[in-house]
Amino acid sequence: MTVAEAVGRTLAGLGVDAAFGVVGSGNFHVTNALVAGGARFVAARHESGAATMADAYARVSGRLGVVSVHQGCGLTNALTGITEAAKSRTPLLVLAAETGAPTSNFFVDQAALAEAVGAVPERVHSAQTAVADTVRAWSRAMRERRTVVLNLPLDIQAAAPANPTVERPQPRPAAAPAAEQSSVDELSRLLAAAERPVFIAGRGARLAHAREALEELAEACGALLATSAVAKGFFRGNPWDLDVSGGFSTPLAAELITAADLVIGWGCSLTMWTTRHGRLVGAGATLVQVDSASDAIGRQRPVQLGILGDVREVAGRARVALTGTRPGYRTEPVAHRLARERRWRDVQFDDDSTATRIDPRTVTIGLDDLLPAERIVAVDSGNFMGYPSMFLDVPDDDGFCFTQSYQSIGLGLSTAIGAALARPDRLPVAALGDGGALMSICELDTVVRLGLPMVVVVYNDEAYGAEVHHFGPGGHPLDTVRFPETDIAAIGRGFGCDGVTVRAGSDLAGVRRWLDGPRDRPLVIDAKVTEGPSWWLEEAFRGH
Asked: Which residues contact residue 214 at a Cβ distance below 8 angstroms, ignoring those fewer than 6 apart?
């Protein structure tokens, strides 16, 4: 057995059930050893796509994501996906072959590259320590919820390991420190005094499985419920759910959050996107943040009370300390308005469709009506992204996968692939702009090869819409961000997908036929949408 084989078999023995990557000579043996150990390998067409697939798989499945790449260029190709995962604190292990020879064409400082994008560099140091080094990297990714790059030097990979077996450890996630009782008491006092409290749950609340604890506390104090974008669907079904807070907020949600006198972020970073650059937090409101990471509290904006602790535990303790119940924000007028204005599709709009182009709101509402409720939606970045994010409903927080911490276009299709493999019981929907779709179009081959019954909807305005609407009003030339019309449905058919072009609501009949059929091939929808600025982007630009 070689070190490469020992590393792959060790990881398989530690429970790695799926890995993604692009195989070259440097990672050939370690990848095959993973497969021999029982892991499934998914071959992507580009390393960045592979990293994002593994990221999405980890987010939705709750398991470790694993990526396997070639030395040098394999790692640099994957860096955008690795950066997204690192910024999102996704537990991800990157197996990166490494050459130590400065004269090699493949030579780069791989440890420095990992550190530069926020990942943790690790290395297999020798044949004697290979298995222990592998377990350490795996444990760190799992325990600290970090993206770890495990560099595998080529000369060491070829050596024989001194000890090819290891007892499997149990890397439980690092326990959050217990919140100080004085902080919990202060939180209870604030809740008891609040007349219009709002809870905003983020990724940390989702990871802590804190829905029940937060709903019980919210019921006792009369709080309305909202989420950050990455936790969309977390409170789905609750009658007091406002859905997403921030740039995607409905007018009603924005109004109610802004009028709150107490806003509590539960495992939520309270970024500029979630708070609309702070404008959603009213001038007289008290802002509280509960998080298990000390460096998250107050990082994005000042808070009046920061509580370091596990979200579910803090919510449970606050409920015990809160005597009695109070109506708070849960009044009859608020309930009446939520019943009528909760969703974006409840907000009236002027349909901008033309003879040749369809309003993105119209096409998304039409798709929402057609697609099965049990779906998982992955959204790329771009001017279009608010439409699928807010007009396509999801059944719960597992139904929405949002790789947007790095704000890169081109990750949405790979996100949908990873999410689909984690939840094969749901219809995967990839929502892309034409720019991101064409940047990542090679992964349509992966979708077809895997036999995924995926719906890929492309909001096609033949432009980088964000730049058009950011610079156009200033009179700047836009030739660099506009493109000739592209038949993306035809491209999809070339990869082996079914393809439908949608210019009007009646064209969605093609989607209905696909849904009624065997769904034995993916469907690419080339939605020729009208060109207009999105409300969420206008909010973002206003913030700048």
From this structure: 199, 201, 205, 225, 266, 311, 312, 315
Q: pLDDT per residue over 45-55, tens digit each?
A: 999 999 999 99
Q: Which two tokens stand for residue 427?
A: 């219809």
H-type alpha helices, 342-471: 360-370, 386-391, 412-422, 434-439, 444-450, 465-471
Taking a C-beta distance cutoff of 8 angstroms, is the pair 507, 500 a contact? yes
Please give the residue range of the domain that contains residue 479. Answer: 347-543
Please tell me the predicted confidence (pLDDT) of residue 532: 78
Question: Has residue 533 got a pLDDT over 90?
Answer: no
Q: Is-contact 3 120, C-beta < 8 A?
A: no
Alpha carbons 209 and 94: distance in angstroms, whole number:
27
Residue with tokens 């697609």: 371
Closest listed residue to residue 85, CA positions, set 131, 135, 149: 149
CATH number at residue 115: 3.40.50.970
| Pure H helices in 70-202 | 73-87, 110-116, 130-144, 154-157, 181-193
Residue 32 lies in a domain: yes
338: number of CA atoms within 13 Å, CB side?
A: 20
Same domain, 355 and 409: yes
